[in-house]
Amino acid sequence: MSPGTGAALRLLAASVDAKAVAEIGTGCGVSGIHLLHGMRPDGVLTTVDLEPEHQQFARQAFRVCGFASNRARFIPGRALDVLPRLADAGYDLVFCDGDRLEYLDYLAESLRLLRPGGLVVFEGVFANGRTVDSGPQPTEVLRLRELLRTVRESQDLVPSLLPVGDGLLCAVKR
Length: 174
What we know:
CATH class: Alpha Beta
Strand order of the largest sheet: 3-2-1-4-5-7-6
CATH topology: Rossmann fold
Order of helices and strands: HEHEHEHEHEHEE
Largest sheet: 7 strands, mixed
């Protein structure tokens, strides 16, 4: 994750005064650290990842950064199996950085999870410039284009595409 993307995540979490954030794709915890820095001091990050060892790295990184253990809830598993178990309208922000082939499915779950005024954020939507390349593209890029079109055309969302890192697609739920 680029420093600009991290700064944007911190700003976005602060802008919605986030108390509850869901993150799809824990990774090694870099995005979670930025989100936690932008969240309210009593906020909780719920982070989902298929790989439990990623979550162990993130747990250690959060501790090193001084976050109390009750600031993050780690749920191992496939995002599309875990997300349906999370509370409807219980989140201020959903950050999606998982399997790009599943981004459209993440969008549907995010709309259910977000409160009105909440924010959904997708990382990597430029796909290293391939989303605007006119040549033949892999399925991942075609799915990203479909996500971009769906968000742009939705009457339930107010979207913006931020040109930081590999592209952040952000949308506020009406």
